Amino acid sequence: VLDNLPRIDYTSGIAQLLMEPSRTNLIPSSEYFSDYWTAQDASVTDNATTSPEGLVNAAKLIPDSGTGGNRSIGKNFTGLSGVHTFSVFAKAAGHDYIALRMRNPGNSLVMFNLSDGSVENEVSGSDQYVANSAKIESFGNDWYRCSASFDPSESTTVGQLFVSFSTGIDGTETINFDGDGTNGVFVYGAQLEAGDFATSYIPTYGAQDTRNFDDVDHFDTSGLGFGTTCSIYFEGVINEASSLYLRPVTMFGSGFDTSERFLLFGQSFSGGTYTLTSRHNSGGATNGVDKTGLTVGEKVKCVSVFDGTSQKFFVNGSSAGTDTVPAAEVFEYLDLSNIAADQNHTIESLQLYPVALSDAECIALTTL
After folding, report:
1. pTM value > 0.70
2. Chain centre to alpha carbon of residue 317
């Protein structure tokens, strides 16, 4: 749904409320790879298998038989400026590796292992340049979303984007590939967007499409199953606050009762650092966990986990501590309206889980 309302994402196997900035998918045909991409020593079969969407609309890329050569699909782009992120869903179909590439400047590429979910952002060769960042995420049923950010600003007028086959992640990586005409990879949902991280998938069918920024004042979450056990994930940037506190996220109990609420807020701004606090209020009692020494203006990832009697707080890949909760409350309303002094932050992603995530899941989710 491409509007400015929050969306519920079920692709990872659990309901997540997504809050994201506006982005445009610059690839006008995101699912029909044979219509848009130019194949080099490879073939493309559309609608070859079931995609993460649950429909038979994923394509299969098969490298031609033969020795050596760059077996890939590619496309030229003009007028790109600033960091862009290229992403695609991929699944092994007899071949376990795939590479995302952008030419100009150099030949920046990242390789992904579709058997174990690992990524290699280092490639040998004098003309190979690593991407700004890379990420691989599991979407179940052996599907991964592979993404890499590149900066084509130093190019002239044309940049080239490729999905390539690779020989593996072993320190001697290469995109010169020996194909057999049978084994390949499944792909779905290609996306190119301005920005240094991939947002949720924006499907396109013949033209570029834009998702507006997600905006919400008060959002009723009671129908999503958020009870006394839940997890609240925030990813974004907190800048210097003009008041004592900056509150990106508030969740209320029934009836917007200010004495029954969860708060995620920045405080103690001084010398370019601040403290991020996860707090639970109930009946006038207040318990919380602080993470001190965070840098103002830098990205932060955090998750607050409640199990009915206690809360855990994880920030940037590690535990910030635990605390009890004054009382087991049901959070029914999400509030991102903020007061005027609170609006100096950016939400890149907000995810709400109706379960208490494990420590390992929290560490993986919040690692920068």
Report:
1. no
2. 16
